[in-house]
Amino acid sequence: MGGVVTRRGLAIALPPPPRPLGAYTPTVQVGPLLFVSGMLPLRAGKPAIVGTIGKSLDAEAARDAVRLAVLNGLSAASAHTGTLDAIRRVVRFAVSLRSTPEFTNHASVADSGSELLTAVFGPEMPHTRLVYGVRSLPGGMPVEVELIFELEEK
Amino acid sequence: MGGVVTRRGLAIALPPPPRPLGAYTPTVQVGPLLFVSGMLPLRAGKPAIVGTIGKSLDAEAARDAVRLAVLNGLSAASAHTGTLDAIRRVVRFAVSLRSTPEFTNHASVADSGSELLTAVFGPEMPHTRLVYGVRSLPGGMPVEVELIFELEEK
Amino acid sequence: MGGVVTRRGLAIALPPPPRPLGAYTPTVQVGPLLFVSGMLPLRAGKPAIVGTIGKSLDAEAARDAVRLAVLNGLSAASAHTGTLDAIRRVVRFAVSLRSTPEFTNHASVADSGSELLTAVFGPEMPHTRLVYGVRSLPGGMPVEVELIFELEEK
Q: Do B137 and A134 touch (CB under 8 A)?
């Protein structure tokens, strides 16, 4: 997958599905639930952005990183189903931010991902969310996101 | 919802369901599973408690914060189903504690939430749990909890 | 359970299922999904290893700790089902590492668990994974893992 896909009349430019960083797989489906591995702000297999939010990175850079990680997750999911139209909604969107201990503005950073997901799946299909600040992330990247999708019935 | 509800003959005073802090929704149901967004120790939409466990807050204050966050989660879930009696059990209870690096007493803090859930759903319906210490949380609050419920069949 | 079990012709020495550290249960099943509580590198109910990865512990010690936590999770799951053969696969493998802020080699540490799970369930049944660095863990232990399994249909 990857390339420009459409959903709800919206054209979305998806990156190629990211390759796992270790001995695991991007997606596993159980019934209507599609579990997706932790997604990072990788571009062409390399960290597109590194740093700590509140120290070397500001909230706007973190918002960009969340969007890229979410796009990687959408690409992984659509590589599984063959098309974004086979996905009904996001069930759960979890966001880990590599931040300073003093950082408090998690909601604003995570909203960049939520707004993208709302554009793709529609406001009538909202998702649950949780966001917290972690101490370290793979490769020094500032965000990692986890997505659980509900697929359309066949 | 909110107000006093009963379950198993127990009267439980629930706060009003909390409003999301961003572009997401409190609950999404897939089959019998009800996913609930990350719940914080908010009261009337404002942090009821802020700080870092092991530094500005002790374990007892953290236990209070976990209880409040769990009550918010119960309120969100019962706003979804209309009644607590439609909920069979908690499947998964995840607790993030904003702590110092040296903090080790996670089990005692998380137990305040587990004890509340056991009072509500009964010892014959125990839940799985995980707890870890994070570096930062939204608004500087000391705890965030995540609940996945199993609903009764209709 | 515990003791030597076999799966796919492989003999696996499982520790006895760990006792919960608080008011919760090791496993809850909903349909084909088996949720397992956070698993730690406990041996006979006591921390087998403590410390911070990147400071008092190196990556190899962390890899050992992940393997032990995963074995505890397999033991808990097989205590639920009665046999490892009733488990089809791991759906989701989440790894929390107690690390320094500068730690970046999460993938290598988590791979020790992924490689063990791949040996048990086979390369044709891979799992999704996420790994991040937390600030503190129960009892000062360096890793905590969470496993969601898919069970075989009866």
A: no
Averaged pLDDT for residues B9-36? 93
Residues of B in contact with A112 (CB under 8 A): none
CATH of domain C3-13+25-151: 3.30.1330.40
Other Cβ atoms within 10 Å of A45 Cβ, number: 9
Q: Could you report the per-residue pLDDT of C82-136, keeping only the tens digit for each?
A: 999 999 999 999 999 999 999 999 999 999 999 999 999 999 999 999 999 999 9
Distance from CA of C111 to the nearest CA of A (A): 6
- Of the candidates A65, A34, A52, A49, the residue with the CA atom closest to the CA atom of residue A149: A34
- Output the furthest CA–CA distance in chain A (Å, rounded): 47
Residues B33, B35: Cα–Cα separation, whole Å: 6
Pick one of 3.30.1330.40, 1.20.1250.20, 1.10.10.10, 3.40.50.300 as the CATH number of A3-19+28-151. Answer: 3.30.1330.40
**CATH superfamily, with its number, for domain B28-151:** RutC-like (3.30.1330.40)
Indicate yes or no: CB of C36 within 8 angstroms of CB of B128: yes
